[in-house]
Amino acid sequence: MDNQKSEKQLLFESNRRLQEVAQELSIAKKERERLLDELSVKNVELKDALNKVQKQTVRLMQAAKMAALGVFAGGVAHELNNPLMAVLNYIQFCLKHLDKESQLYKVLQDAEHETKRCAKVIKTVLTFSRLKAEGEEDPVETDCYIIVKRILELLAYRIEANEINVKVDFPDQGLVVTMKPSKIQQATLNIFLNALDAVQVSKDKEIVIAGKYEGDYAVIVIADKGCGIEEKDMEKLFDPFFTTKEAGKSVGMGLPIAKQIIDDHQGELIYESELGVGTKVKILLPLKKGYCAINLK
Amino acid sequence: MAKKILVVDDDSAVRQAFILVLEDAGYQVDTAESGEVGLEKYKNGQYDLIFLDLKMPGIKGTEVLKKIREDNQDVPIYVVTAFHKEFLKDLQAIRKAGISFDLLDKPVGNEQIIAVVEGVFGL
Q1: Which of A87, A150, A225, A279 could in theory staple to A273 by disulfide, Cβ–Cβ 3.0 to 4.6 A?
Q2: Residues A232, A35: Cα–Cα separation, whole Å
Q3: Share of chain A above pLDDT 70, in %
Q4: Coil, strand or helix: which one is A192?
Q5: Is pLDDT at A132 greater than 70 in this prediction?
Q6: Is A82's Cβ below 8 Å from some Cβ in B?
Q7: Which H or E run contains A179?
């Protein structure tokens, strides 16, 4: 009897212990799942952080590359400026004293034209090389819409003459960013000029220029229904002297200059394009810390 | 009597360009290859107009400008440079101090040089 009782007791104890172990296992399993979830979140966070570091590294390397290129290009441009001025004046002196009907006169006119073209290239290169060095403009809070309005005023004649339909869409409360206004104006103008060129031969000569808030950024969007950009050219867009335009029409410094300016503002320049459909450019400018649309008025 | 013009620039090609254009238009041109020589020539000659480079070895153009203005407030001085952005602070300080000058952006062509000269001499 005693033995039977003892076995029953043992069985009961074992069963209870088993239940306890099962419960512990269930808790351990839940804890494992929780830890796995936590790990998964941490993993995503780590990937994000890694991504940010990689982006920042690329940006820093690009900035260092562009700064070095700027110094080099600036030096070359300065060295070329004096001889170029001399050549221009020698040519113009000859032109002044030549018979306008002579063949030489026409040849020298071409030489003068090409020399002026060189001068224009040098001026653009100097602008690029000076972007970092110029310290005359302090950042101020500026409404991006004011910048866009100025650009449209500057290009009003060209827009009208080419019958281009420019649609402007900015929020009523404005799109205020701390920026160097003349620099952002230059960057936006360079991008807008490309849009104007792109719609020149399009059926639908339409450009939309819009402003909006997106996360921590103020965004200026310039979207055209122009010829679009070939995929093979997309990665070269910001390379100095890269152009798809006719020789003599563009130096190929507009976008590198724009990119440099936006980078200096810790912003981003995003290009999306489809050949034959159009191009959309987003200029992202970081909002001041703690600054949001609601605080604007 | 032909008007006398002094060109101060360390680059011989630039000096030659000024001589070509200005002598052809009937002006008497003197040149100086440095700030030091420029100041020496200024002291010994009566000039009606001065073209002055900014970035030169030795005395900088801004110093030459200040020294000439200590002596003469009237002679028109055109600073000819591609470096006006780099010298912006110096030039602003000079202007603030009441020292007068005009600025020409290099490269300067034939027509622009003549336009400046004719503007100065009221032709």
Answers
A1: A279
A2: 45
A3: 92
A4: helix
A5: no
A6: yes
A7: strand A176-179
Question: Bridge-partner residues for A217, per DSSP?
Answer: A214, A286
Q: How many CB pairs under 8 A join A and B?
A: 60
Neighbours of A15 (CB within 10 A): 10
Residue in chain A lying closest to B110 (CA): A89
pLDDT attached to residue A136? 56
Q: Residue A26 is encoded by which pair of tokens?
A: 């269930």
The answer to whether A296 touches A174, Cβ cutoff 8 Å, is yes
Domain range for B18: 4-120
Summary mean pLDDT of chain A: 86
What per-residue confidence (pLDDT) applies to A291? 41
Measured distance CA(A45)–CA(A123) in Å, rounded:
46
DSSP state of B104: E
- Give the number of residues written for chain B: 123
Number of domains in chain B: 1
Interface membership of A84 toward B (CB under 8 Å): yes
Residues of chain A neighbouring B11 (CB-CB closer than 8 A): 82-83, 86
Q: What is the CATH number of the domain that holds B26?
A: 3.40.50.2300
Residue of A nearest to B23 (CA): A93
